[in-house]
């Protein structure tokens, strides 16, 4: 086992190209290299990741912000539940006497379910799940720092983040393209609060402006540098939280080089993945996006996009076998 480990570490540093020889090595040592035709199993406590080495196949439910929708999602095969948290009022609080974290997307300020009840229901479901593949991951999307700070004690008391995959999502920096309309969540306050949640996965991104009429724009070097600086300035590299970067499909398709630089800067301190998302009417260069996915690797890339775009990407195991040039690790030495 030790010999295989050293061999694997050595191979990671080599600029492999896809082909019969490299595939032979990958099968022998069961590597996670992206040229391999066999998906590698991830070493993580998350049942979602354990079951899905090809992270592009993880399935999502969005805006699970009401009780009835949550019931349907829990009964489904969906693996990850994404929901929005705002400060507001329960619908049965007719006099609006108690402002609390609720499941709602701005500008909504009312909901029939609180964050506390939302988490308690998922926790009960996960604990009672007979089949580990049925366990749900949770992605909590915070649109304001106030909602996040008010939610910390609730999350700690109502959920088991050590046993079940828990993501904390917020846009903490301004991003492309010339986006000044959306105010990001304050990064220093976000990280200060997030540190109280232990090893929760931090899903941290940039505000974006994009749509059907856009074709140019990227995550720039300065925006990537600002993200790296924010992570290091707040000690997240030292505490070692897993980090997933939510990146917009139409923009990240133009940003392969800068995303590689982002990964390489943090790979030794944090488990880094990317989560591609897209709005229904976004302009997306499908071929460029496929190149990005295969460059970063199916074991490091979640794909949370509309069904029609997902189908166009043809994310089967051999989809990019002729386009693979180097492993993601090897690119860090360029």
UniProtKB/TrEMBL annotation:
Q: Domain Menorin-like: where? A: 54-309
Q: Which GO terms describe its cellular component?
A: extracellular space
Tell me the superkingdom of the source. Answer: Eukaryota
- Pfam families xrefs: Menorin_N
Similarity comment text for this entry: Belongs to the menorin family.
Protein known as: Menorin-like domain-containing protein
Give the lineage. Eukaryota, Metazoa, Ecdysozoa, Arthropoda, Hexapoda
């Amino acid at each position: 086992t030790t010999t295989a480990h050293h061999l694997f570490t050595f191979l990671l540093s080599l600029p492999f190209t896809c082909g019969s020889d490299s595939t032979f090595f990958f099968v022998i040592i069961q590597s996670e290299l992206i040229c391999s035709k066999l998906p590698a199993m991830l070493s993580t406590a998350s049942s979602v990741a354990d079951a899905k080495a090809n992270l592009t196949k993880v399935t999502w439910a969005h805006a699970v912000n009401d009780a009835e929708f949550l019931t349907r999602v829990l009964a489904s095969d969906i693996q990850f539940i994404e929901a929005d948290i705002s400060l507001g009022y329960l619908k049965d609080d007719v006099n609006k006497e108690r402002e609390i974290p609720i499941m709602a997307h701005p500008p909504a300020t009312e909901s029939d379910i609180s964050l506390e009840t939302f988490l308690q229901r998922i926790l009960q479901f996960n604990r009672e799940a007979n089949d580990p593949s049925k366990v749900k991951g949770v992605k909590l999307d915070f649109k304001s720092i106030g909602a996040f700070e008010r939610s910390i004690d609730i999350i700690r008391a109502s959920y088991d983040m050590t046993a079940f995959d828990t993501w904390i999502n917020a846009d903490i920096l301004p991003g492309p393209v010339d986006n000044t309309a959306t105010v990001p969540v304050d990064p220093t306050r976000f990280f200060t609060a997030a540190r109280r949640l232990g090893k929760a996965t931090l899903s941290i991104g940039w505000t974006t402006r994009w749509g059907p009429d856009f074709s140019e724009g990227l995550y720039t070097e300065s925006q990537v540098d600002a993200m790296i600086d924010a992570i290091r300035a707040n000690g997240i590299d030292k505490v070692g939280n897993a980090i997933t970067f939510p990146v917009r499909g139409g923009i990240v398709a133009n940003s392969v080089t800068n995303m590689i630089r982002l990964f390489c800067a943090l790979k030794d301190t944090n488990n880094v993945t990317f989560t591609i998302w897209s709005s229904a009417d976004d302009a997306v260069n499908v071929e460029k996006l496929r190149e990005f996915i295969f460059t970063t690797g199916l074991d490091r890339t979640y794909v949370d996009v509309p069904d029609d775009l997902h189908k166009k990407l043809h994310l089967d195991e051999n989809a990019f076998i002729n386009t693979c040039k180097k492993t993601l690790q090897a690119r860090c030495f360029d």
